[in-house]
Amino acid sequence: MADVHILGIESSCDETAAAVVRSGEKIVSNVVTSQIATHQPYGGVVPELASREHLKAIVPVVRQALADAGQSYQSVDAIAVTQGPGLAGSLLVGISYAKALAFALEKPLIAVNHLEGHIHAVLLEERQKGNRELNFPVLALVVSGGHTHLYLAEQRAESWTYENIGHTRDDAAGEAFDKVAKLLGLGYPGGPVIDKLAAHGNPEAVKFVISQIKHPDRNKIPTLSQKTRQGWGTPQERFDFSYSGIKTAVLRYVETHNMKAAIEERRKALSRIAKPKLEDYLAHIDNATLDLVASFQRAMVEDLVGKTLAAARAHDVATLFVTGGVAANNELRQTFEREAAMEGLPVYFPSRPLSTDNAAMIAAAAYPKFLAKDFAPMDFSAEAGMRLSG
Ligand code: KG4
Ligand code: ZN
């Protein structure tokens, strides 16, 4: 089969991204512009500002991705775009532009689920490294600012099917990192800052207990072979997460340990620095806060790894994927690697640039759809709450 170049466009949250990927296995270009500076003063993504920034960035970002790839609007074979989940206004910017391009250029248009994109980030990079020997079933943890979801993923011929076996009941893991960082005056986004600062604190200092969701049917977990016989879609056990409690526990700790004044000072001091570096954070933080940050991260990591491995055992999976923004976290990666190795389970992560939002993963997820001629109609719309299934 001749090479297929797909132009991917991603605008679901606060990154405007475009990429060209060849035949689902080679990143030819990958451009991501972040809106962090716009949202930083508000301590989180402001949807109206996000749409406006996407509008400004989309044309130059796509142009750059084509130029970096040595491609033109005419030379690409298809245009893929994120349909959802995400912020409706942000999604619409990417979708409208992708539709206009597909219409004007008479190219096929492919709608991609953002979560499927995160899973394909792993597949894309493994193929790029020449690793085509993945064993199924795969269990994928998609852990980001908006999601903490567990999917069983299967490939049948060219097409992929997904079954959700767990998700967060409240805050996503990345959201908890962001909220805790905001509450400690560490700015936005919180994950990367906490990741770096945690290495300087004592993770055993504060004991956090993460809420466990009661699963009355946990003891009746069918094995994968039983499931295959029963067919997918029968009621299954869940492996759900809950992270709003730990955020409240950190808040309570801050209040009972009189940390508020120091937090305010830190917030002010850091807001005067355009792009604070690790040294700047360390200059404005005390040991008690470093211990708190390290203990928070340890509790999050233990819960994410523990639940994912429990799900992997229950479903007898052969391979583990960990993807999404939080998959960039150092302690999470190390802990997954150590614990999965003890169970003889191979675990794959995307590289750090492909863990967070990007369009290469969208173009990669579109490739099997291109082969299956699974094209989107011109009147498809954004789906802010889009689910990923079968
Ligand atoms: O996948 P992503 O770029 O966007 C969404 O789809 O949500 O994920 C962004 C999330 C943010 O919550 C951010 O704080 C978190 O990923 N994140 C991290 C790290 N890098 C990004 N969390 C923990 N450690 C990191 N190194
Ligand atoms: Zn994402």
Fold and architecture overview:
The longest helix has 28 residues, at about 285-315. The strands form two sheets. The chain has a five-stranded mixed sheet with strand order 3-2-1-4-5, sandwiched between helices. It has 14 helices and ten strands. The chain folds into two domains: about 5-120 and about 355-370, ATPase, nucleotide binding domain (Nucleotidyltransferase, domain 5, 2-Layer Sandwich); about 135-345, Nucleotidyltransferase, domain 5, CATH 3.30.420. It starts with a strand and ends in a 19-residue tail after the last helix. Helix 2 (about 45-70) packs parallel to helix 3 and helix 5 packs parallel to helix 8. It is about 45% helix and about 15% strand. It is globular, with a radius of gyration of 21 Å. Helix 12 links the parallel strand 9 and strand 10. By secondary structure, the protein is of the alpha/beta class. The structure holds 5'-O-[(R)-(carboxyoxy)(hydroxy)phosphoryl]adenosine and zinc ion (ZN). Zinc ion binds near residues 324 and 357.
Could you list some keywords that capture this structure?
binds zinc ion; 390 residues; 14 helices; 10 strands; single chain; Nucleotidyltransferase, domain 5; five-stranded mixed β-sheet; alpha/beta; binds 5'-O-[(R)-(carboxyoxy)(hydroxy)phosphoryl]adenosine
